[in-house]
Amino acid sequence: MATVTVEIVTVGPTPVAELSQVIDFLNHRQDAFRYAVISDSAVADFAGNAAESFTTDELYGLLYALKQRRRGYHPFLVALVDRRLDGKVYGNLFGSLRQEVDSPHAMAIATLYQIPVLLPNIPPALYIAFELLSFSIRFLYGEGLIHDERRGCVFDRKVNKLEIFDAMRNGRLCPSCEGIVSKALDVDQGIAAERLFEVISEVCRSDNPSRLWDKHIVALLPKVFLCHSSSDRTAVHRIAKSLVDKGCRVWLDAWEIRIGDNIVAKINDGLASSDLLAVALSREAINSEWVMNEWTAKFIMAAGTQNVTVLPLLLEDCTIPPLLRPLRYADFRSPNEYDDTVTNLFEAIRHLHFKIKATPPTEHSRDTAKGGIA
C-alpha cells in the first residue's frame, strides 16, 4: 500500500484552532492517508483582492506559487480559509478542487465561511475532517465524481450549504460512487475512508455531537505520568500546566491523590494508565528511592513492547542515572529557553505516544508496577 500524503496550508488567520487535533484524528485512525500541516508566511499573510472573499483563481495561483517555492514532491495540497469563496460559475462555495494541467496532481480549497452559523451543533473541526477526507478520495480519482442527482451520497452536489450536514450524517457513498472509487483506491485506502466516514456519521447522528467529538479527540491525547521529588514541586507543576495547555493529559500526584486515598494504589493505577512517564531530574530526585521506583517501574512495563517510554527532564546539573544516560533529555536548566523546551517536549510526547499506540501490547507490558511519591 502506498501512503497518500495530503498537505494542508491555512490562508490568513488559522480558521480552526483545533487543526492539530483534526490532523491527529485523521492520521491515527488509519495509515492509508497521511495529513500534514505546512506553514508559509506568504500564504499566511495573503490578503487577496477583496476584504470579504477569495476567488478560486487567486487561491489556486497562490497554491501553485507555494509548490514552486517549496519544490520537492507535493502532489496534493489543500488550502483552508475562513472567507467566502467564489468560483468562475458559482459564488459562495464551500469547497473547490482543481487538477493540475497534464498532471495527476491536484489542489483544493475548503472554507469555514458561515459553517459555524449554519451548522451550530457540529464542531467546525469535524467539518474540516470531512472535507479533507472527501478531497483525498477525489484527489485519487481526479476531477469529477460530484454528481447532480441526489442519492444520499457524500459526493452529492451541494447547492445549499445546509446539505453538507446530510452528507456528513449519511457518511456513505452511493453504489455508483462505490464502484468508481473502488477502482481509484486500493483496499487499504477504501477501508480507511470507510472507517473515518463512519466516525463522522456517528458524531453527526448523536444527541450531542460536540461531546462525542471531544471523546474521540481525548482518546487521541497522550497521558503523561510526571515523576518528581517533592522538593521540585514548583518547577514540575509549571511543566505539568504547560503540557495540559498544549493538549496532554497529565498524572501529577498533587492533582490525583486526595486525603484518604491509598497512595501506592493510586500511583500503580497512574503508572498503568499512562502512556509515558516523564521523570524530573535534580540532585534531590536522583537520591529519592520513591522517584527511582516510579521511573524504573515504567521502564519494566515498557520492556515488553520494546518502547522506551521514560522522558528525562533535567531541572538542574546532577548525576544522571546510568539507565537514563542514553536518552536525550529535555533541558529545563535555562529559564530563558523554557517555552522552546516545553514545545520540544510536547512534540516528543506526541511522537512517542502514537508510536506506542501502534504497537500491540504484550502480556508483560500489562503488568502493574509499584511506585510511590517523593
Task: Give structural notes.
By secondary structure, the protein is of the alpha/beta class. It has 2 domains: 214 residues, Collagenase (Catalytic Domain) (3-Layer(aba) Sandwich); 144 residues, Toll/interleukin-1 receptor homology (TIR) domain (Rossmann fold, 3-Layer(aba) Sandwich). 44% of the residues lie in helices and 15% in strands. It has 15 helices and 12 strands. Strands 2-1-4-7-6 form a 5-stranded mixed beta sheet, with helices on both faces. A 5-stranded parallel beta sheet has the order 9-8-10-11-12, sandwiched between helices. Strands 3-5 form a two-stranded parallel ribbon. Helix 10 links the parallel strand 8 and strand 9. The longest helix has 20 residues. The radius of gyration is 24 Å and the shape is elongated. The chain starts with a strand and ends in a 17-residue tail after the last helix. 36% of the residues are buried. The C terminus is likely disordered.
Proportion of residues in extended strands = 5-15%
Largest sheet: 5 strands, mixed
Query: How far apart are the first and last residues' alpha carbons, in Å?
Result: 49 Å
Number of domains: 2
The CATH homology group name of the largest domain? Collagenase (Catalytic Domain)
Q: Rg, please?
A: 24 Å
Chain oligomer state: single chain
- Report the mean per-residue pLDDT as an integer: 84
Q: Output the number of helix runs.
A: 15
**Strand order of the main beta sheet, please?**
2-1-4-7-6
**How many E-type strands?**
12
CATH class of the largest domain: Alpha Beta
Order of helices and strands: EHEHEHEEEEHHHHHHEHEHHEHHEEH
Label the CATH architecture of the largest domain.
3-Layer(aba) Sandwich
CATH topology of the largest domain: Collagenase (Catalytic Domain)
Helix content: 40-55%
Helix and strand content put the structural class at alpha/beta
